[in-house]
Amino acid sequence: MLHNSINELDRRRFLQSSLAGVTAAFGVRNSATAADESSRSSSTNRSAANDVRDRLKGPMASITIAYNADFSIDHGSLRGWVDFMCDSKVPVLFLTYGDSELYNLSEREIEAVIRTVAGQASGRSLVIAGTPHGWSGATTDFINRLEDSGADAVNVHLYNKNEEEIYRGLSQISERTNLPLLAYESKFSLDLVKRIAQLPSLVGMKCHAELYRYYDFIRATQDENFSVLSAGQMKHFLFGYLIGSPAYLCPLTPFAPQLGLEFYEALKQGDINTARRVIFDYEEPLLKVTIPLGYPQAYKSALYLTGHYKTNLIRPPKKSNSPAEIKPLREFLAQNKLLGGAS
User: For an engineered disulfide with 59, which of 75, 227, 250, 307 has Cβ 3.0 to 4.6 Å away?
Assistant: First the structure.
């Protein structure tokens, strides 16, 4: 009996020892696997960010929302417009808070628009999604839901007035998401821009600052992998490009992409005279007739008049442009042979 008891004890000790060894081995292997997966994920994130930086160049077309007569989103017209942009070789489609009316859309609608645009583009143009206005936790969840949407990067809308809160929010979001990010600049200080430019997943910033501050931001981040994007107008980008700004939101590109591309190609070739001619002949006359119409109403009316959208509606309480109000815009488009199906 004693001999059998000793044998049983030895057997149990052996099994316990063996199981402990196996468990330890699996533990080491699991830790190593987790570390490898984290490393691969980090490498993939860097690769995605670098790809966005490489492609984030030239005229960017704002994604303006198409509506049906009942103010529901017209995804069919939106898909047609995306095809037109991609076929025209427009490099970047950009969802932004103002032009894309994110303030007028529910979170579900914003996600649906992103999926429509990114799905239709299917890699032909770089698609920059946008977030609803919300706290950093909700923004993180929203961005993570977009991973399978086909969007290439996300424009993060944070409106905190406290710059430490803005930096903390962008840091937290960048740590908890995989998609490359852009910041939506709203009266940022030079110091804040320098700090966010060092966040590894922040590929750039949509800049709304006036001319000289825009230049300051470009110069301050020239040694970082960080793109300072002009929020609009060729005349701003004319000088911004020369000191390192890679892309700009163009008021002409959403309905006349050939003009936005002609301007950008002229800059790339150092042909400043051609670039200036596009500004003088097209951008400045366009702004004279669109400023009274308001934004994004003017862009929506241009897309309607050029035949891409079935209506030029904007959701109430904002007022849609009337036929009489868009008459000068129609005349501008007709004079430049840009008029489409609506009359």
Answer: 250
